Amino acid sequence: MEGGAAGPVKVLYVAGLGRSGSTILANTLGQVDGFFSGGELNFIWKHALIENRLCGCGRPSRECPFWSSVFDGEFGGQDEALAREMMRLQYSGARTRHIPMMLTEGGREKIRARLGEFLENTGRLYRAIQSVSGSRVVVDTSKEPAYGYALGMVPGIDLRVLHLVRDPRAAAFSWAKKKPQPDSPDREFMHRKTPTQSAVLWDAWNAAIEALWRQTPKRYLRLRYEDFVAEPRRSFERILALVGEEEAELPLEGERAVKLGISHTVSGNPNRFDTGTVELRQDREWQKKMKTRDKALVGTLTLPLLARYHYALR
Questions:
Q1: Which helix (H) or strand (E) holds 60?
Q2: How many CB atoms lie within 10 A of CB 153?
């Protein structure tokens, strides 16, 4: 890539519940010239610096040339003590429980003061990512509403929010699956949720995302995952418009295929390690294999937003 532009770091933040297709979306956006896909950067201090999990390139994070350049150049090395302090500060003011505070001016000032050095060092981190990658846009798929809102408080970050929504029944079906997690140091499979847990969290996070960003429509875009895979070209055009990169070349081969290169993503779904040509297509497995009672349960628990987001009730 060519050298990144000076000025604020433009960050495209993908917000939404896990198992909503954010990894494949980010992998494809990472193929756009001038875009860098960093994966779930909210976990970088824990997963990369402390646990040394695999980078998307397949190497342990501490051995990855990209992340070594980021941390050596900006922080003088991959300092575990700094990572633990950043985690402590992050947990003190950028968790789901802090969302109510973020909805009031007084609460936001308390959060900003509480986060303190976390905001400063996060700005340094994203500037270093932009510089080393030579990108104009850093794609962050952390998804957590509270972390994303805190990111918007960081001086020097120009935040744009892509609210990614997937049918809650499809998400619940995915959460219930037993999926290997190859980068985990201490457990064999990804975390799982029951249909009830998934549905309640789907309601809470999507409602929180709207509450936090719906007042800034020029910096916020809601996109259904089903629409992304049905009309990739139209979806990419909308996303590029959100970040002011309308002239960028779309990462498509034909209408439905994307050629994925090696990435340097932190954390996320195991398909972040995928390379080669991938065809974007609808996943209808849940419609055939999900238990009828679980479909009905999730549909009932998510009914108001299910209708708001134009999903079929049955």
A1: none
A2: 19
Q: Where would I find the beta strands (DSSP E) of the chain?
A: 9-15, 35-37, 137-143, 157-165, 220-224, 257-260, 276-279
pLDDT digits (tens, 9 = 90+) for 68-80: 999 999 999 999 9
Distance CA(179)–CA(250), nearest Å, equals: 31
Quote the CA–CA distance of 47 and 264 in Å, as a whole number: 13
What secondary structure letter does DSSP report for 47?
Answer: I
- What are the residues whose beta carbons fall under 8 Å from the beta carbon of 225, sequence distance 6 or more? 20, 21, 25, 164, 165, 166, 167
Q: Which long-range contacts (CB under 8 A, 24 or more apart) does 176-183 make?
A: 176/294, 179/269, 179/270, 180/270, 181/270, 182/54, 182/270, 182/273, 183/47, 183/53, 183/54, 183/267, 183/270
Q: In this structure, what token pair is assigned to residue 66? A: 């990209």
Strand order in the sheet with 9-15: 35-37, 137-143, 9-15, 157-165, 220-224
Q: Of the ranges 26-30, 141-145, 185-189, which one carries the lowest mean pLDDT score?
A: 185-189
- End-to-end, the C-alpha distance of the chain in Å comes to 46
Residue 259: strand pairing partners: 277
- Taking alpha carbons only, the member of 305, 274, 290 closest to residue 37 is 274
- Residue 51 is given by DSSP the state S
Rounded alpha-carbon distances, angstroms, from residue 175 to 112, 170, 200, 301, 310 = 33, 9, 13, 16, 22
- Each residue's pLDDT tens digit, 163-215: 999 999 999 999 998 777 667 666 566 778 999 999 999 999 999 999 999 99
CA angle at 38 for the pair 43 and 83, rounded to the nearest 5°: 35
Query: What does DSSP assign to residue 258?
Result: E
Domains contained in the chain, CATH given: 9-308 (3.40.50)
- Can you tell me the mean pLDDT for 125-154? 98
| The CA-based dihedral angle spanning residues 242, 245, 246, 249, taken in that order and rounded to the nearest 10 degrees | -130
| pLDDT > 50? residue 1 | no
Distance, CA of 202 to chain centre: 15
